[in-house]
Design brief:
Layout: E1 5-10, H1 17-29, E2 33-38, H2 40-44, H3 52-63, H4 71-74, E3 85-91, H5 93-100, H6 107-116, E4 122-128, H7 136-143, E5 148-150, E6 153-155, E7 165-167, H8 172-179
Parallel strand pairs: 1-2, 1-3, 3-4, 4-5
Antiparallel strand pairs: 4-7, 6-7
Length: about 190
């Protein structure tokens, strides 16, 4: 994946930020140039999983780039063809719903819209507690969309969170390689 530029977008599934950041590190080690993007909530909300400023500082240091955190900053992604692939990891049920229904009111959703206009791959790493309930319809819609691919996903705790699904972030690199070749690796684990 030499000379590949990937957008790496964070949504508000804060419990998965550490795993997502580890994937940025791995992708950088593989020689991929990363442009970081964050939703409004990912960029501003402090949680028990860390302060927003700490996440921002760490991601910007790893990527050696400022995070795209506004709609205005995300808009040039399409016209300037800035990305070879856009990875949304973690991608919440809220963002999945917006993508499935054409709503572009956050930096992440506008980045996706701008990127997809160039017929380039969008890779989604699902992380939502309602994937097997209200978000299921939207995930199904996106599974059928051209240029949209998924990092393999599975239930993360079928007993305590029976409708929750999280992508296997360790499969991000393989899923990205395949998405760049217009191929979907097995999206759902059993």
């Amino acid at each position: 994946m030499d000379k590949i530029t990937a957008g790496f977008a964070f949504c508000g599934s804060f419990c998965t930020f550490e795993n997502a950041i580890n994937q940025i590190i791995f992708l950088k080690e593989k020689g991929i140039d990363i442009i970081p993007i964050m939703s409004f909530n990912a960029y501003s909300v402090d949680t028990r999983f860390g302060k927003a400023t700490e996440h921002i500082e760490r991601i910007e240091k790893i990527c050696d780039k400022k995070i795209i955190s506004t709609i205005e900053q995300a808009e040039p992604i399409g016209p300037q063809k800035l990305l070879d692939i856009l990875i949304i990891e973690p991608c919440t049920g809220n963002t999945i719903a917006k993508l499935a229904n054409g709503i572009t009111d956050t930096p992440v959703t506008l980045a996706a819209k701008a990127h997809l206009r160039n017929e380039r791959p969008l890779l989604i790493a699902v992380s939502t507690n309602d994937a097997l309930s209200t978000a299921a319809t939207n995930i199904g819609k996106l599974l059928n969309c051209k240029n949209i691919y998924f990092v393999p996903m599975k239930q993360d705790d079928c007993v305590n969170k029976p409708r929750s699904v999280v992508a296997d972030f360790s499969k991000t690199y393989d899923a990205a390689l395949n998405a760049l070749k217009n191929r979907q690796i097995q999206p759902i684990y059993i």
